[in-house]
Amino acid sequence: MTNRFARYAIPLSTLAAITSLALLAASALPAHAAAPGTAAAAVNVFIGTGGDGHTFPGASRPFGMVQPGPDSQVRHFRQSYPWAAGYRHEDNSILGFSHTHFSGSGHSDLGDVLLMPYSGATKLEPGYPERPHSGYRSRFSHDEEKAEPGYYAVRLKDNEVDVELTASDRVAMHRYRFHKNAPAKVILDLRSSIYDYAGKNLWSRLRVRDATTLTGMRETRGWAPGRQLYFAVRFSRPMSARQLHNREEAIEYRGFTPPGKTPADKVVVEGKALMAALEFGVPTDGTLLVKVAISPVSEDNAMGNLDEMPGWDFEAERAAASAAWNEALSVAQVQAPEPMRTMFYTALYHSMLAPSLFMDRDGSYRGPDNAVHQAKGFRYHSTFSLWDTYRALHPLLTLLAPERRNADFVNSLIASREHSPHGILPVWQFHGQETWCMIGYHAVPVIADAYMKGIRGFDANKALTAMTASAEYGPYGGLEHYMKLGYVPIDREPEAASKTVEYAFDDWTIARMAEKMGKKDVAATYYKRAQNYRNVFDRETGFIRARKSSGEFRTPFDPAQSNFGSDYTEGSAWQYSWYMPHDNAGLISMLGGDAALAAKLDQVFDAKIDEKVYAHMEDISGLIGHYAHGNEPSHHVAYLYGFAGAPWRTQERLANIMATQYSNRPDGLSGNDDLGQMSAWFAFTALGFYPVAPGSNEYVIGRPFLDKAVLNLPSGKRFTVRAEQLSEANRYVGGVTLNGKPLARTFLRHDDITSGGELVFTMQASPNKDWGKERSARPYTQTNY
């Protein structure tokens, strides 16, 4: 594979050197709030902000509701993929600082309530990156940009302002430092884009409450239709002048303002293209502070949320954000050489950004029915990228995050189902609204895995009812045909092969939870449905294939073919023919034995393919042969050798994946981070094990990439992983001990970890082909080997 990471924008040495900025206000930024040597100080927030990682470098709290950060481009349909997070490290100008961001999604949205400070002439349009001074955007340099968990700072060259951001759960704080004797001015822009504001913005409102406070709202029909967001903005100085604008009639296609248009100075303005130009005189200390609170419910609630941050002490808020991140990241104490240590803690950081809180201080939130509800006994969260995150992100949080937090996630899913007009669990939800993006009913394995691992604090019977309701909702994704035929027919439903196998896995997790709850009839029904993956497996070719209603496999067949809406979801037969993670023994049997599975896996990784084969599919990235690490269907594949008694082959593949698909650079992720899934994969793999089948209560052992890791578990117990003689040359596992005793099996049970203890790997240069060879040593599968 060509090393796609040969062109990094800035080396680690440069990032490490950026510990302060030269400020125009004649003072330097404070040093890192995160103390040297702490987990938060180890994070490189810029990993994934370049290439296709789609992460954002702004400030936030763990799972926080507000995410203030820089946007380098407007969000509209022509830029929905490259600028999904609003910012790309390759850009050299900043549009402004908005307050909601996705971390690593494959689709663009959010970017609410954009603020841009400046001190020169007022310009009401953002302008163009290739034309400096054409609008209110400003050029910047990465040498004058800095970020760490809970904090972001940058110098705006054209606007002559230094910007710092920090956040609590619901409130962002900005600190602007202007040139000496320069007037302090701020643009507030509620438009999503100068091109499509009339299409995405259904309505918006901007209201002046008093000399220091504005409130407003946006209702949009972007990725999630009918999404409402309310906000309150408070300044540390009173406005000396203001202009509120509705630009619906004042914008031509290319963003120029026609002559003769004079905006009115109003107290309230409503429309689809609102913005404000605000002036604050000349601050004696050159500083203007801003607080922005958001709410899913109302402007008044946004005002109430401002009370979460009552003062104006920026350094105190920044320190509190850093402390919150240090507490969250201290679940692991890691010893590893650079850059591995930084990459590990950054992976943990990215794993703790979503699902995000979406509930006001009074417990109210907006559900998928767009009505306001009250959370009782839990904190409502949203932004569930479930097709991605059920695989590793949620299992990681189930293992490391407090039980209450995991119970909050489950209760939020159940509550969303109760408010859903369709009566089913979320599919891909953000800000309480359903997007219907991707396939499967993957809230089901999230709930089942949590229950199987002992997470309580939610009504299990209500949860199981929600799970079966989702699995039996016929109008969704061909389920009526799946329940009748045992597979989704391609002549009735697109992406039928992928849907069939993903439904089968979800069904197995329902069976697991029902069985543990003592509901044998439900378990039997869904264990049977879990075998439906066999109905789309073609023994003649050895691939998962789409079938017609009549039973025939669709022809012609090309296992490398991939198109949106075809037989597979963001993949080909080469990537999807391994998707029965709950029953790999069944796959082995259908392929013809252990050797056949290993040989077929080798074909995946060792294939010499033209990069053009998948070039039309932007999500299929990070290629090693047909293996596509940049997209989720491949994520468990390297671990499958262990099911065939050859874990040493997994060790080889993992070494290659870690070396080529991750790096401590801005484009250090080979695909979308997908709200933490890519990062969670890295965290698990670095520790030495991975949850191939969430709900099995097992982790398949791979190989470690850290010298030592101590997991500080929510129970107060500790689980230590040590790798003796670990080096680049010693990439194979010679032997494993658990609590001082040799471990013959190639998997860990969840209880092995949560009980506390020590897992020790002895690494060596040559493979140990005997360890894990016996069938008794292999991980769980639904059917016997």
TrEMBL record:
Native source species: Massilia polaris
The Glycosyl hydrolase family domain, residue ranges: 301-764
Domain of life: Bacteria
Endpoints of the signal sequence: 1-33
GO BP terms in the entry: carbohydrate metabolic process; glycoprotein catabolic process
Gene3D superfamilies linked: 2.70.98.10, alpha-1,2-mannosidase, alpha-1,2-mannosidases domains, GH92 mannosidase domain
Keyword DNA-binding (UniProt): no
MF (Gene Ontology): carbohydrate binding; peptide-N4-(N-acetyl-beta-glucosaminyl)asparagine amidase activity
Gene Ontology CC terms: cytosol
InterPro entries: 6-hairpin_glycosidase_sf, GH-type_carb-bd, GH92_a_mannosidase_put, GH92_N, Glyco_hydro_92, PNGase
Domain Glycosyl hydrolase family 92 N-terminal stretches: 43-295
NCBIfam families: aman2_put
Pfam families on file: Glyco_hydro_92, Glyco_hydro_92N
Protein name (record): Glycoside hydrolase family 92 protein
Alphabetic keyword roster: Hydrolase, Signal
